[in-house]
Amino acid sequence: MRWIDIILPEPKTSQEFDTLMDEAIYLNLEIDPIQQKHGLDSPQVLEQMGRVGRRLFKAISENDSRAFSPSKNPLGAPTPKIGIPQHDQLVGYHIVTDGPWASLPWTWMHNGLEFVLEKHPICTATVKSALPSLSNQRPWMTRCQRAEFLVDDHGDSDLFNTLQQLRPDELTQPEILFVPGHSDQKIRRLIFREAEAIENALGSGHLGQDLADLDFPKDAVTPGELKKLGINYQAIHFAGPTSEPAVTSDTQGQFWMNQLIDEVNTPADLDIEEAMGVEGEVLGVDPITSLLDAVGEKYDREGITENRVGSAGIARSDGAGQYSFDPPAKTSNNPWLLDDGPVEPESMAADGGVPPLVFSNSYRALPELGMRFTGAGASTFVGPVLPLFSRPARIYTGYLYNSLAEGWNAGAALWNASRKVRKELGREHPAWLSYGLRGYGSLSLQYL
After folding, report:
1. What does each C-alpha distance from 31 to 114, 162, 186, 206, 434 come to in angstroms?
2. Regarding predicted confidence, which is higher, 235 or 331?
3. What percent of the chain is helix, strand and coil (3-state, nearest 5)?
4. Cα–Cα dist 125/71, whole Å
5. CB neighbours of 395 closer than 8 A, spacing ≥ 6?
């Protein structure tokens, strides 16, 4: 696939552009009270996403009428072909911006007829899609560029036939560190199921060789250990609560992690069912899966009953194009909460290193942590752009890693996962637009 670079103007250089972007910001802030009133997964959320997206699309297209046209806007950096036409024929949009607009939900761009993400991958970064010069490259970037020129003895250049050159037998298999960030006893089995979904997805590829292994720690991961471990892994997947911000009281030491593996295979379902007040086996669905989904959804819904202003604040409109903004009740930018305390991206960079790929499946991870992780050294960051329930979050995660296991680059994998989630949960369910990517969309597991 190829990327089109769309470079946004600097703030205060275009009054018309700034006005439209301010409108998008305020409309985006209204998502929070809509979710509080109607539910995290209500159709009203998708409607508001469309309003935000139309402002974003209008701002860019009125600033540059050629921005979204592959025939007029020069195609930017290419991504090596993997031999899957659906991936290789894609054209993606690489939004280049920094500052107040960088954390907006750019995957919501709507042209008035459809969300742009329906047909095109979208990512945002502070730099263009082209990889930096050799002197500033990370190892994955060098392998990515090298992959463009690989050909086997028969002249084939697709990933299936050239993977052995890209990944010789003596090369160590890249590893993804799974970091559980939620210790609540009621849902720790759900966290394990997220790891299981990732592991199954990674092993489902057609390449005859797994592109990465998932390392699931047997003991709790402390902040100090994570800072030291970060440089030893090629990717980190953080699994935390996605419907509510994590709070310090969630952590319960090593108890939950030490009991996790033991409890997964024990017949404790009736006890959980009785304690949580849920029951019911969905016909055609594994009873344990049904029960755990019910437990998780009950936990999610009970967790959002309180007034939740959080990091978003509340935006108000007078109906005549004028907006006012009630600031947030408290500062957010939620760090990762682990055993013994929080982990900040900046501290990881200072103490060891941030791996190229970071997937934070946690509350509002992209707007709150995306810029911080890429600023701390991550090449690509993936995460939710707004609160969502644990079940659709887990479904999205599985589809994304399934595409990565097929060799898709991160930008295309996110696009493919979005399409599959929309097909499974329905067009009006907002989960398919609930994730975004910051950094290089061209990163793939085979280059790690």
Report:
1. 19, 46, 28, 40, 12
2. 235
3. 45, 15, 40
4. 23
5. 421, 424, 425, 431
